[in-house]
Design goal:
The structure is a single chain. This protein has 8 helices and 4 strands. The chain is an alpha/beta fold and 215 residues long. It has 2 domains: 32-68, no CATH class; 71-215, Rossmann fold, CATH 3.40.50.1860.
Length: 215
């Protein structure tokens, strides 16, 4: 596979948003169409009623609330359109106050929040092989983040939708992998940029130009 493969990450034409624009050479849309991948994807909406329901509800929320509602509200609107009732919250323990606020919003909307914090279970990191010098504070008990347990607890509660609030990079991947309910994200953790990771992209030419020289 070529290291210089042309993909959407290198394209700025946005030709896929219009039926009239010509696609650039090597466009992923062309690859999808010629390889029948696009047709296969459409079949998945037909084959699984949940896929279609989520897609339609998402499109409806986008049409009605685009640039009008904050994400917390969009989650409520989406949940209502899907007739979801119990909302799981997989939260970083460091954002527990934000989770408490979000839970109040859900309750005010008639939904039932069920939270599981990342340190739930109180398992020391050494139990999964983290060395003492790999801890933030070596030499003492340090609870591991346990996204698999978070997912299993929410699965046990049979939540309709799970919301990620600030799980670490990688931990969120494990949570998504083990969650039986659909997953969406309210907050992406970024301690340096006040949980606004896009800030690093907007300042790549100045404050964060070092990101182009990572070793």
């Amino acid at each position: 596979m070529s290291d210089t493969l042309f993909t959407c990450a290198k394209c700025g034409s946005k030709s896929c948003t219009s039926a009239d624009k010509a696609h650039p050479e090597g466009c992923v849309s062309i690859i999808a169409q010629e390889g029948d991948i696009a047709a296969e994807a459409l079949k998945e909406y037909e084959a699984d009623p949940q896929n279609l329901a989520i897609a339609l509800a998402s499109a409806s929320v986008e049409a009605e609330y685009y640039c009008k509602a904050p994400r917390a509200e969009e989650i409520v609107r989406f949940a209502r359109k899907m007739n979801y009732k119990k909302i799981g919250i997989a939260t970083c323990i460091g954002l527990i106050e934000e989770t408490r606020i979000f839970a109040k919003i859900l309750e005010a909307a008639g939904l039932v929040p069920y939270g599981a914090a990342c340190k739930v279970g109180g398992v020391d990191k050494v139990q999964i092989g983290v060395p003492e010098d790999g801890k933030l504070k070596p030499g003492g008990f340090e609870a591991m983040c346990n996204p698999i347990l978070q997912a299993k607890l929410l699965n046990n509660e049979k939540t309709d939708l799970n919301v990620v609030v600030g799980l670490c990079v990688g931990h969120d991947s494990l949570f998504n992998k083990y969650s039986e309910a659909p997953v969406t994200t309210l907050i992406v953790k970024d301690r340096v940029l006040a949980h606004n990771p896009a800030g690093a992209l907007y300042t790549l030419g100045s404050y964060n130009k070092r990101l182009l020289e990572l070793t």
